[in-house]
Amino acid sequence: MNFISLMAPAGGATGGPAGGGTSMLIMMAALFAIMYFMMIRPQKKKQKEEQAMRDNIQIGDEITTIGGIIGRVVTVKEDSLIIETGADRNKMKITRWAVSANNTANEKAEAERQAAREAAEAAKKAKMEEAADASKAKRKKSKKKDDTFDA
Questions:
Q1: Domain carrying residue 66
Q2: CB atoms < 10 A from the CB of 46, how many?
Q3: Of 2, 33, 55, 80, which is most buried by a Cβ count within 10 Å?
Q4: Whole-number CA gyration radius for the chain
Q5: For the stretch 85-98, what's the b/e string if a residue is b when 16 or more beta carbons lie within 10 angstroms of its beta carbon?
Q6: Residue 16 domain-assigned?
Q7: Does residue 148 belong to any structural domain of this protein?
Q8: Facing residues of 71 across strands?
Q9: Are 91 and 81 a contacting pair, CB within 8 Å?
Q10: CA-CA distances (angstroms) from residue 143 to 129, 132, 140?
């Protein structure tokens, strides 16, 4: 017995013994493709971003560990970091994989987003004012024409 004949329905509603097995394989492949694009691919993308964040940690960055400890990076080594925590500057050695977030990079990214939003709003406001000025000039011009026809 082969795999396709095992997958075929017993009654053979499709007409042949291998017809149901082929459609079953197609359905399984489609299901796997959906699972890949909905679950596996986004997870891999997120893991790559986290690894890039961990690789880009520099001295002076403020980080948060997976345990919730917040500290400033003092020393960067190949697979570990030394951070200072608290006002009394306790030093702790942690591994890179224990870093949950780089707060300094997040603050920089948020500041860039805010600056881009403000620039877009300023451009929109300038465009609106320009359109309003053009509209006023157009109304003045048409009013002048109407005054010359009345006289």
A1: 56-103
A2: 10
A3: 80
A4: 32
A5: eeeeeeeeebeeee
A6: no
A7: no
A8: 63
A9: no
A10: 21, 16, 5
Closest alpha carbon to 109 in 61, 59, 45:
61
Residue 28 lies in a domain: no
Measured CA to CA in angstroms, residue 68 lies from 71, 88, 151 at distances of: 10, 18, 81
Strand partners, 37: none
What whole-number distance in Å separates Cα of residue 115 and Cα of residue 86? 31
Half-sphere exposure of 14 (CA within 13 A, CB side): 13
Query: pLDDT digits over 17-71, tens only?
Result: 555 789 999 999 999 999 999 999 999 999 999 999 999 999 999 999 999 999 9
Task: Give the CATH number of the domain where residue 81 resides.
Answer: 2.30.30.60
Q: Supply angle C-alpha 125, 128, 133, rounded to 5.
A: 125
**102-115 confidence digits (pLDDT tens):** 998 888 888 889 99
Mean pLDDT throughout 77-96? 93
For residue 86, is it left (φ>0), alpha (ψ between -120 and 50) or beta? left
Is 19 part of any domain? no
One-letter amino acid of 101: A
Report the alpha-carbon distance of residue 91 to residue 72 in Å, rounded: 9
Domain count, the chain: 1
